[in-house]
What we know:
The chain is of the alpha/beta class. It has helices spanning 6-13, 56-61, 88-102, 116-127, 145-151, 171-178, 194-197, 200-207, 209-212, 227-235, 284-299, 304-312, 340-352, 372-384, 398-404, 416-423, 444-451; strands spanning 3-5, 17-18, 25-27, 29-30, 41-42, 66-70, 81-85, 106-111, 133-135, 159-163, 183-186, 219-223, 243-247, 260-261, 266-268, 277-279, 322-326, 329-334, 357-363, 390-394, 409-413, 431-436. It has 3 domains: 3-87, Udp-n-acetylmuramoylalanyl-d-glutamate--2,6- Diaminopimelate Ligase, Chain: A, domain 1 (3-Layer(aba) Sandwich), CATH 3.40.1390; 103-312, 3-Layer(aba) Sandwich (UDP-N-acetylmuramoyl-L-alanine:D-glutamate ligase), CATH 3.40.1190.10; 322-451, Alpha-Beta Complex (Protein-Tyrosine Phosphatase, Chain A). The protein contains 17 helices and 22 strands. Strands 9-10-8-11-12-13 form a 6-stranded parallel beta sheet, sandwiched between helices. A hairpin with a 2-residue loop joins strand 17 and strand 18 (329-334). Helix 14 (372-384) packs parallel to helix 15 (398-404). The longest helix has 16 residues, at 284-299. The two termini are 33 Å apart.
Amino acid sequence: MINKTIQEVAAYLNAPCIQDEDDLRIHGVCIDSREVRPESLYIPILGQRVDGHSFVDSVRKAGCKASLWQKDHKPYPEDMALVLVEDTTQALQQLAKAYLQSLSCKVIAVTGSNGKTSCKDMLYSIFSQETKTQKTQGNRNNEIGLPLTILDFDADIEVAILEMGMENKGEIEFLCAIAPPDISVITTIGSAHMENLGGKKQIAQAKLEILENLKPNGLFLYDKTSPEIDECLQEMQIDPSKKIVSFGCGGDVILTSDIVTKEDHIEFTCSCLDQKVILHSLGAIQASNALPCIYIGLYCGLKQESILYGLQHLTMTKMRMQLVKANGYMILDDSYKSNPESAKAAIDALESLPVSFRIACLADMLDLGPTGKDLHLQIGEYASIKNVDVLYGYGPLTKFTVEGFQGKEKAWFETKEEMIEALRKYKDQDCAILIKGSRAMAMDKVVSALKGE
């Protein structure tokens, strides 16, 4: 993580520093007063509900000796070195940009409606076999999280893998201004954020800011099965020095075999490797997510053996297509978020599992706009033709999912607790239970309950 003197921090920000001690060094930054360490640089963020400046007393009690500070927040706290700035959020972003520029690392940026976290995890596992690699932790992929991720990078980092999230146009461009990528990936274009942007083409246009802001001579990869990207590319003026590669059906990098599903992994071959890939994850969508990662690894000169080993020994971020066996249940935990495309991919993964009985526990998919009712109904219909035996729903929109399902058993529940109780009868059975819903639906609580936590 960042390890600089407070004067170097001030120089990065072109800002005055007061009350500083000679050679005072900061090691890492922190925006949460509850997590600050004596060596941290505290950055008080002025949020909609909470002003980080108001917690300075607890920060000082923790032994922290340095902070960014908005000039208009007087009186200034004593006994701390303060770098005075106009806006602490902007200063955080400026500091991250300057720090990244001081590092000698390749930046790989990943965005997409679905699969960006999986793609990030795969890239990290591949590159870590040969290089000092660091990645976005958790979901720190926005205007606050991305700068914090960068400031966690070590000085000797060689490859930085950054996840970039968005909800509106201009947000990817903003993140790329902080961290201009050498390589960028769009995994998919889906229905997420339809409510904000209006349609898939508009979503593609917003995602393609990651290409527009790619460094000259950079590499860009995109999902060929998202036709909106091809449509937008034809309308764009693109720097000819940038290399563009498509992956997936009809693309430059493709699967060359059927996907074979084992108990905890999938196997396949692809056009850019001459050996079988064993991927420690489940679902056809994960094979698709692996394609750009394999290509990027080869493009950057990694050994084929390193790429294969990284994918076989992959550790995925929790709540993303994670197969969990605990307390007598086999759970396919994909509870972090949901939209129509990822819900279908999760149902596909459920269908592929070698079990006698399959149960889908689904909650609302949010931010779909006026099409939400029909899209939920379609998920129920999709599950009906995918060997799902039981469908349980939670949330007002999922009533339509249950309505569309024509399997052996279905039920809609007003509470997660009712759903959990209904699942108890499947303990110690030869079945798999998919848990999925938008983040706000907190379906991870169902997973925790079944695990006995």
